[in-house]
Amino acid sequence: MAKIDRVIEQVRRILREDTRGLTIKELAERTKVTRITAAMALMKLEGANEIDARVIGNCKLHYLKVSK
Prior knowledge:
- By secondary structure, the chain is an alpha+beta fold.
- It has a single domain, classed as Winged helix-like DNA-binding domain superfamily/Winged helix DNA-binding domain (Arc Repressor Mutant, subunit A), CATH 1.10.10.
- 53% of the residues lie in helices and 18% in strands.
- The protein has 3 helices and 2 strands; from the N terminus they run H-H-H-E-E.
- It has helices spanning 3-17, 24-31, 35-47; strands spanning 51-56, 59-64.
- The protein has a two-stranded antiparallel sheet.
- The protein is globular.
C-alpha cells in the first residue's frame, strides 16, 4: 500500500472519530505527516466526494460526509 493510501485511511478513521471538524495542520499532526501530504490526502477524499470542508476565517475544517 502506498504512503498516501495509508494516510487517506488514517484521515478517514480520524474524521470518523472526531466529528467537530479538523484543519490540515491538525490532521498532519495526528497522522505524523507533512501538511502537504495531509492536503494531498484531503484533496483525494474531496475528489471522491467523501468529505466536506467548511471555511471559518483563515481555517478550513474538514468533516467526513455522513451516509444516509
